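Sample intake sheet
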Amino acid sequence: MILYGSSFSPYVRKVLAFAAEKSIDIKLKPLGLGSTDPDFLAASPFRKIPAFSDGNFTLSDSSAIVTYLDATVPEPNLMPEEPRARARTVWFDEFADTILFPAVAPIFFNRVVQRILMKQDGDEGAAQAAERDALPPVLDYLEGVIPESLYLVENRLTLADIAVASVLVNLHHVGLLDEARHPRVAAFAGQMHARPSFARSIAVERRALAR
C-alpha cells in the first residue's frame, strides 16, 4: 500500500495514524499538490492529497481511504457498528475535515508553510483574522463535547479521535493550543499525540520545521 502526500497535511496524517493503529504497513511517498508524478496522477486525477494505491486499486480522499482500510483490516475496529456511535464518528471526521481545519488552515499556511517551509512572506493579516474570528468558536465547541474519558465516541479510540487530533497537530505547530482557555482540548491533544501512531509523524515534522 502506498500513500502519496505530506504528513504536514492533516488528511495525510490521519491516514498514516489510522493505518498505524491497525498495524497496516503503508508506505508514504512524499510529494506536494503540484506533483506530476504519474503514479500519483493515476491515483488522484484531480490532484487531491492524499492519494492511495493498493495494487491496482486507487483512491484520493482520506475518509474513503480509511473506510477501505477499516474494511480490509477489521480489527481493531475504529469505526463503530452501533448506529448512533457510527454516525457520531462520521460527524467528527467531517467536522475535522470541513470545519476545524478550514479554521486552522489560514494560520498554518501563512505562518508555517509560507514562512518556514517555503521561506516566503505569509499573509499575517489572514492568519490573525482566522485566529481571532474563525478558530475560537470551533475550539469552544470541541471543548464542550470532549468527554471526561478524552475519547469522542464510545469512550475508546475511534476514527473520530484520529481525525480531530490530526488537525490539532497543525494547531500545535503554530503554538495555539491554549491549555488555559481550552484545557480539555489540550488534554485530548496531548493524549492522542503521545500515541506512537501520531508521535512518529510529529517527530518528522518537527525536524523539518527546525531546519
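Comment: Helices lie at 10-21, 38-43, 62-72, 83-117, 124-145, 159-173, 183-193, 196-209. The radius of gyration is 17 Å.
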